[in-house]
Amino acid sequence: MKTLALIVTVLVLGPLTFAQQPGTSGTASQPQAAAAAAQARVAQTATHSLASTAACSFTFTSGANDTFVKYCVTANGNITQLEMPQFHEHLAAGVFGEGYGICDLTNGTEYFDYAAFGDSANWGPAALVTQSATLAKIVRTTSDGAWTLTQNITMVPGTSPTVKVAMALRNNTTDDRTAFLMRYADIDANTIFINSLGATSNGAFGWDPTAFPGVGTRGHFGVTLQADALPQQHAPDLGPQGFTQSGPGGPSPCNPYAFMFAGLQTAADGSVVTIYELGVPTKTAKTVTVHYKGM
């Protein structure tokens, strides 16, 4: 809760400072300040268990300039900072919102953790299984014991670096079950709250549209949350599908289509999500993989 209070304090003070910078249009800064305040309100009213956190526990860095990537992972497996390329941050602005959601379609139970945007308070403690210079493997079981989520969050360096997130969802019950599994991120591209956003069947993306186009300025940067196809798809498996949301805060895992925005958003404080529907037989797991890529 101390982390959340600090985030909210910075969020309230930051836009006021931005609005007073020399040469900055007061009119132009007003939507940014309004978006920052809206994020703070949503974060304050969200449910936060004692385990909820947006604090960075594991930091990964590679490359330089256009091949640079730096991101951090919380103890619960949220990615709350993402810089790619160098000096262009896309998540650690305002409220740090990123994470995962599950809906058990068999009984309608929701499980989610969206970092500073709250959690469902029905998770057990997260456990770090493996850590290296490029990998954090984190395992977490729901408090009712029904599901275990294993995340392998891997840095893939190179000329086009990515952050690879493999999520294995295991059904621990004695019944075959069906579930939604999603990945969510509140994108504030280039630390700007008002972005352009869009989605396809394979993912969703957001970028900073404020710079003038041109080779010299190179101000248009953003991030894509891209989802891999399921390697072996059997009924009732569906997806992936990308969506965008207009407004701050994470989606309800059992009502994902309520937040879907159809078409391109050109001036919104929005977020992105990828979603799968998975049939998970008893005592087995299914894995989906998504990637954060610069754009």
Q: Please, could you describe this protein's structure?
A:
This protein is mostly beta strands and 295 residues long. The protein has a single domain (2-294), classed as Beta-galactosidase, Chain A, domain 5. The protein is built from two helices and 17 strands. A nine-stranded antiparallel beta sheet has the order 6-7-8-9-17-13-12-11-15, with no helix packed on it. The protein has a five-stranded antiparallel beta sheet with strand order 5-4-10-16-14, with no helix packed on it. Strands 1-2-3 form a three-stranded antiparallel beta sheet, with no helix packed on it. Helix 1 packs antiparallel against helix 2 (26-45). The longest helix has 20 residues, at 26-45. The protein is globular and about 60 Å long.
Report a brief summary of the structure:
This protein is mainly beta. It has helices spanning 2-19, 26-45, and strands at 58-62, 69-73, 79-83, 98-104, 109-113, 127-131, 135-141, 147-156, 162-171, 177-185, 195-200, 203-207, 222-227, 238-246, 265-268, 270-280, 285-294. It has a 9-stranded antiparallel sheet with strand order 6-7-8-9-17-13-12-11-15, with no helix packed on it. A 5-stranded antiparallel sheet has the order 5-4-10-16-14, with no helix packed on it.
